[in-house]
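Fold it.
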Amino acid sequence: MELSKYEQQMYGGEFGEAIQQSMEILVALGKIYKAENFIPVSSSQIAGVSYKTIGDAGLEYLEDMVKNNAKVKIPSYLNPAGMDITNWKDMKIPEDFAEKQLKIIELYSKMGIKTTCTCTPYLIGIRPKLKEHIAWSESSAVSFANSVLGARTNREGGPSALASAICGITPNYGLHLDENRISEILISVEADLKDSSDFGAMGYYLGNAVKGKIPSFIKISSASEDKLKALGAAMAATGSVPLYYVKNITPEFILSDSPEKITFEERELKEIKEKLNSETENLKPELIAIGCPHSSLDEIKEISEFLKGKKLLCDLWVCTSRNISEQAYKLKYTEIIEKAGGKIVCDSCMVVCPIEEIGYGITGVNSGKAAKYLPGFNKPRIIFKSIKELLSDYTEDV
């Protein structure tokens, strides 16, 4: 790789061990992917925050970085943690888990990283511009940034995103290069997609079909950002899809001259929904968990409007960022949700939280991403429905 004088100094250890270790990670990545040089990045979004996912080894790594005076050079943000940082006792999180989770947050904070603890930084004002280079790591955030915002990022791992935050650069390969952002699959959507859960179900199905390639969609006449985040999150979960295009909706639509063609019809939509619910037919959820990726203010409003005058028949978590939660509280959405028996859960989500230790075995979700990850991460069975269906089926009038 071609390194500038400053990059050589970082790599050579002239600015300390933490920067040197970070450069070693970035240089190794660059060599693996045959990057010719480094490019500056304007922000970093760092995964590897939940104690459930990084464990003691990850905690020790962060302790070593802090001991070596690691500090970030660019605006840097955290992915969700394994619990609500403030109200973890209300979630029935074990104390030993909470103690280590709080230590992880403290260590990241000491490095100058903003403890946003959200997978939807774009909902709290962190919205890189078209063609802006960033180093983000959470799969759904990567998809949204590349697709809906038109920014440029590979799917970084937690350590490489942290390394980029410390050094302010990333290897110039993959989706940072225009030639690697060309779609070779054209998907004609013939199904009637009514809500975010339909977009998530389609993403679940098509992620498996395209497997890491870049798909382009036609015949989607309109789609809110909530629907697009559901689509991208599910494709990232089932097929590691980091970028997609929707004609006349996303800021870019870059299609090859002779793409492979796929049709997604009502039959496929029905098939994937039946598959996702096959193990829980006639069962009831112990927990309804909404917010994977984290809920927007519009989604929380929808939930609160439906819960007026209702009582939940199971637990409800509405997972979101602390920023969005504060807005929901001011608008009285939180009051309505809590009166019905639900909770707004900040900083975390059902996937990275140890819900099996809390005792939930059957979880209702509206997210294709959660439907993919929950059975593997936490072992519960899932019920997959729309927000409206979940709240209709498992509430009663007061």
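The chain has a mean pLDDT of 96.
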